[in-house]
Amino acid sequence: MSIATVSDTGTVHLARRSGVTSDALGSPATPLCPGLPAHSADNVSGYPDPKPDELGLASHLVNHALALRTHTQPHLAPRVSSLNHNAHRDDPARPCFIRRGALEWPNSASATVTTMRRALDHLDSWPVEIAAAAVISAAKKTPFVTDSAGPLSVELRWASITKIVTALAVLVAYEEGVLELDEPCGPPGATVRHLLAHASGLATEGNRVICAPGRRRIYSNAGFEVLAGHLEDRSGIPFAVYLEEAVLQPLGMASTRLDGSPASGAIGPLEDLVRVAEELLSPQTISKETLREATTVAFDGLDGVLPGFGRQEPNDWGLGVELRSEKHPHWTGSLCSPSTFGHFGQAGGFIWVDPERRLACASLSNRNFGAWAALRWPKLSDAVLAEHQSTYG
User: Rounded CA gap, 314 and 147, in Å?
Assistant: First the structure.
């Protein structure tokens, strides 16, 4: 049974269902392809783009027709109630202040900080005006930032990384009983789960339906806009307000806001994106069981195009996050485990979490995704993973 409660702002949320206890891309990225101009339109810094053949990806980065394949996705796990939205906002065990190369840990003077300066030095070679990155580890259970570089408090566009926080809001609503993952939503035959997993059949933009649900992995910004509208209808709360109260406030993301589409409109600093990484390593707004379900392949075996990196067979996704699996080429590092999940954005940022290594990396910049990023992001990721391995074994 759900109990209505009134928040400080006067909006109404449903309390978690009783009787259950708890323990955890914006505009689509422009595909890289032969013929990319030497100075592409996304080059705001004036640096020349690397030629596509430098990446060795030209033959892979073509948008082929998507194969048809049918599959169904059962509900993977029983419902588990998560923690209250605001349960950990004042938790002294969670790191709250980030500075370049160092941390201040409230009430945690004994914490050991491990630096990864050599890995983050890769940012010095990026052809951008502004870039920031952070490495987050949960090797000591409570996530902490091991190193950071660049301006952490500068607000930058997240583009499609927005989909992760939108998905978190939907998953909170699922745990609150506002909606069900397998209830109808979107095109005929589609569900909330289909939309979260880019398997609804909706086109990337607009309301055009390309195929039946569960047959192809079609990356869809439109699908996340439908999701946000559905949550708004079901909760009676404007989506931006629901997102603020269910995700941004509980995670302490005071400088992040939704300015536009729930698929691509988030604007905020890297220090807030770090909060998202911490949540994905050690969840507080949702249960560990729900996070596990969200980071497991939804509708296994679907092929599709990964924006910017061409056709993937299969193109695995969870609920709101992309799964690395065995994809090649890919924007994460070659050393990332197949269970790595995350998202990148057209605005020039990314976040990935490697649950096997209990490690995450997040980065934002002011230059749109392009050949420069496809070349450099994997190198940074591999350097981060190599140094983590040398530190923790």
Answer: 34
Tell me the CA distances in angstroms from 202 to 70, 81, 232, 305, one per residue in order: 16, 31, 20, 14
Contact criterion met (CB below 8 Å) for 136 and 278 = yes
Q: Which 3 state secondary structure label does DSSP give 145? A: strand
The dihedral through the CA atoms of 160, 164, 168, 170 has a sign that is positive
Asked if 101 contacts 115 with a C-beta cutoff of 8 angstroms, the reply is: yes
Of 31, 133, 52, give the one whose Cα is nearest residue 375: 52
Q: What is the dihedral of CA 41, 382, 135, 308, to 10 degrees?
A: 30
> What is the per-residue pLDDT for 157?
98
If 0-12 CB within 10 Å is exposed, 13-18 middle and 19+ buried, where does residue 90 land?
A: exposed
Distant-in-sequence contacts of 108-111, Cβ < 8 A, 24+ apart: 111/140, 111/144
Q: How far apart are CA 278 and CA 286, in angstroms?
A: 12
Query: Cα separation of 196 and 320, whole Å?
Result: 5
- Whether the ω angle into residue 187 lies within 30 degrees of 0, i.e. cis, is no
- What is the pLDDT confidence band of residue 117, given thresholds at 50, 70 and 90? low
In terms of Cα–Cα distance, which of 103, 61, 95, 134 is closest to 381? 134
Tokens for 391?
Answer: 């530190």
DSSP 203-245: -SSSS-B-S-TTS-B---HHHHHHHHHHHHHHHSS-HHHHHII
pLDDT at 102 over 60: no
List the beta bridge partners of residue 60: none
Asked if residue 338 has a cis previous peptide bond (ω within 30° of 0), the answer is: no
- Which two structure tokens, joined as six digits, stand for 322? 């992309």
Torsion angle of the four alpha carbons 131, 137, 138, 139, in this order, in degrees rounded to the nearest 10: 180
Per-residue pLDDT of 205-263, as tens digits, reads 999 999 999 999 999 999 999 999 999 999 999 999 999 999 999 999 999 999 999 99
Determine the Cα–Cα distance for residues 183 and 221; give it in Å rounded to an integer. Answer: 20
Which range has the worst mean pLDDT, 86-95, 116-125, 171-180, 310-319?
86-95
Average pLDDT, integer, range 95-119: 39
